[in-house]
Amino acid sequence: MAVPAQLHSIIFSFILLLLSLFDTSLSQPQTPSPAPAPPPPSDSCNGIFLSYNYTGGHAIPPTDPTNQAYRFESTLTVLNNGRHELKSWRAFVGFQHQELLVSASNAVLADGSSFPAEAGNGTVLAGFPIIDLKSAVETAGDRAQMEVRVGLVGTQFGVGAPDVPMPLNISLVNDGYSCLNATNEGNNVMHVCCIQDDLNSDSNNGVNDEFLARQEGDLVIMYDVIRAYSDNYWAQVSISIHNPLGRLDKWQLSFDWMREEFIYAMRGAYPYVVDTTDCIFGRQGQHYKEMDFSQVLNCERRPTIVDLPPTRANDSILGRIPFCCRNGTILPPLMDPSKSISSFNMQVYKMPPDLNRTELVPPQNWKIKGAMNPEYECGSPIRVTPSQFPDPSGLPSATASIASWQVVCNITQSKQAVPRCCVSYSAFFNDSAIPCNTCACGCNSNPSQTCSATE
């Protein structure tokens, strides 16, 4: 059958159109595909990756051209890219611009200080409430369990735009890790990778265990939960001295509640101030509407606890706790082992959403001091194996606590204080007593044999 001439014309025109389109595509230059974005620095770290990102800031009053104050905001990120879980993470940020740290989300100050705190010489942050960081192996790469972001807000001095107040360095403080040199990315990002030291794995604080190993220090505080209920629990607090020069007299213990807890009852010690104001006018009073708050001992966010006198040792309500009621005196074990520990119990009420007997959160920012004793710096509580106590019935068995935390405190070098009473004697056997801070006779600046009360 003959093909109509009109159909021939249509087919021919279609072929010409295809050829023209093909020719046009060949004549146009080919646009190269964009290069793939480089992987983030954290991908090359097979350990703990830390980054510090300065996000912004501005000048704040008062105006001072010589030493202007600026608000700063930044984010510290800790990511566990290692094989094992990182327990009780602690990170050092080397602040260097007279920083005053006002707040930190998901972290507390490891030295037990409260915000705001001076951080111009660097500071160590400890995780709270996210204390442990899981590994990718045990979470199938769930970054929410592997990573913590700490939002930092504070004040720094002297560094305004366009300069950026970056820290000197950042590092992981946990034992058993070695950090490489920190790397700057641009002018507002710093990151570092810290690798687990296999050669020193024994000092890794039990990284493969469920609990951290117990540590040693000049003074150790144990926070043991001995009974737990849905809305409250009983905790036993023990203070023990391990330094031969670490005597305490009239000790005072303070800490911060982080979840709006309050102290309902105590045995073996007592609050320095009995105050329920914060409960009555706060969320505690709204939640526990039927509670008689006249029986509550303390609702302060940061209570101070003191020891009871010996006359209360056998009190049926406040006493009858082993190692209690010594008027705040704790002696070194070399002097008297039986008096080297002090202990008390307290009943703690919790608030939503922690109304579960397994939701147990220890207080943070511990401080202890004595009347005329060395100053102590206390670390953050670490979860340790449950403590064991002799069976109260006298049976040859031990009773384990439900949960235990350890707080290690060490004596710090306090600032030189002017002595209030001291006497020194001349090397030349003078009959008179020499005033304090007095140079002995015959000093280089005063070669005469006359003693000076100003040297």
TrEMBL record:
- Keyword field contains Hydrolase: no
Instruction: Indicate where this protein resides in the cell.
Output: Cell membrane
User: Per the UniProt record, which residue ranges are transmembrane?
Assistant: none
Tell me the InterPro entries matching this sequence: COB_C, COBRA_pln
Gene Ontology CC: plasma membrane; side of membrane
In terms of superkingdom, the source organism counts as: Eukaryota
Q: Where is the signal peptide?
A: 1-27
Q: Which residues form the COBRA C-terminal domain?
A: 420-454
- Membrane-protein topology: Lipid-anchor; GPI-anchor
| The UniProt record lists the keyword Membrane | yes
GO BP terms in the entry: cellulose microfibril organization
Record keywords, A-Z = Cell membrane, Glycoprotein, GPI-anchor, Lipoprotein, Membrane, Signal
Its family remark reads: Belongs to the COBRA family.
Q: Which PANTHER family match?
A: COBRA-LIKE PROTEIN 7
Q: What is this protein called?
A: COBRA C-terminal domain-containing protein
Upper classification of the organism: Eukaryota, Viridiplantae, Streptophyta, Embryophyta, Tracheophyta
